[in-house]
User: Which sequence fits this backbone?
């Protein structure tokens, strides 16, 4: 990738396919302003985000993607892999992965208690 803008567009493509929203929409959903979105994601949100990114890398390398358009297609495909996995887990568990909860706003002791439940 040549520019930060292209990288941001590809990141948005992965996020949209994984979570159904771009990073800026995701930040709005969580009520964040200038905070780092990843700092406010739960474990599974982070895992599916990483799955989308890793899947994109794998697909782009496998297709020998060159240039923005080919990498954009790989980003959409990689995000779709993670999005389908997220939807499958949500259907099987009956719980949403994407939540408006902000993990840094909770005391660490409360987070640990909730994880034990």
Assistant:
């Amino acid at each position: 990738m040549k520019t930060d803008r292209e990288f941001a567009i590809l990141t948005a493509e992965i996020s949209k396919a994984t979570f159904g929203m771009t990073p800026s929409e995701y930040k709005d959903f969580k009520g964040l302003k200038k905070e780092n979105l990843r700092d406010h994601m739960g474990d599974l949100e982070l895992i599916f985000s990483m799955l989308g990114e890793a899947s994109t890398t794998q697909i782009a390398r496998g297709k020998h993607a060159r240039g923005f358009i080919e990498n954009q297609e790989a980003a959409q495909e990689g995000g779709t892999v993670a999005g389908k996995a997220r939807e499958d887990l949500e259907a099987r568990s009956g719980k949403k992965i994407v939540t408006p909860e902000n993990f840094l706003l909770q005391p660490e002791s409360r987070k640990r208690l909730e994880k034990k439940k």
